[in-house]
Amino acid sequence: MDKELxxxxxxxxxxxxLRYLVKxxxxxxxxxxxxxxxxxxxxxxxxxxxxxxxxxxxxxxxxGKNVCELGPGQHLxxxxxxxxxGASKEILxxxxxxxNVNSLVDRKGLKLRKGYALSKKLPKMETNETWKTYLxxxxxxxxxxxxxxYKAIPDNSVNYVFSFAVFEHIxxxxxKEYLRQMYRFMQIGGEAFHVVDYTDHLGxxxxxxxxxxxxxxxxxxxxxxxxxxxIPCSEMCRIMKQTGFKIVQCKKTYSEKPLIKRKNxxxxxxxxxxxxxxxxxxxxxxxxx
Length: 289
Fold this sequence. Notes:
The chain has 289 residues and is α/β, with parallel strands linked by helices. Helix content is 31%, strand content 18%. Strand 2 (89-93), helix 5 and strand 3 (140-143) form a beta-alpha-beta unit. It is globular.
């Protein structure tokens, strides 16, 4: 068993209540967890999600297109793939600087998947090149100022938007405004591809539905690195439609049985429909028309 699989296995053995208590202490600044303890996506996993999204959308290249990714996390690899596929501009939007500086050292992560034609060669990486300078040299913009970064993008300027397990982390009270800004800066006919995880990020179940709105949406809980807004899939799609998006596809995954008993859910979720309770994830494709 490799180290990443072992880490995931060990993490799955920790009871969610204990994990929650440790995470709360971390959010309060009382403890600091090593990154080695936290589950992180490898570059290979990160790139596979991107190329799979391209396959689903039927995209062969990004020639002359502007591409935006929400919440890239620790890897800043995708702009370099988009550049090689002809993109005019690449935009990364994040709420803070989570970049893994070492991610640019692994040249393998910058290679296109077999079957995609190279449109532009990457500039030569200079000695002591930093991810910031290299991004600038391919006309990529990395913003780490949250909603202000969204507001700074010109109207009708982005052709494609991608997010991978990001939508669920947008703070609930700001979710609608983030969507409005996204709709504003996308071009007519532009497409958005979102992978959403509706589990609790405390162990892959739905124990986050035990908490009241007052508790879960306070400042401490928002600082949890596994905070999720708990907006169910049906509500997310409704908000997107209300914003103006057309839902082209919403492909859901389900658990065989509920990951939490309804009696254990807070009363604010008492009217949640059975399908939303069973939904563990979704791929949502939306278009601005």
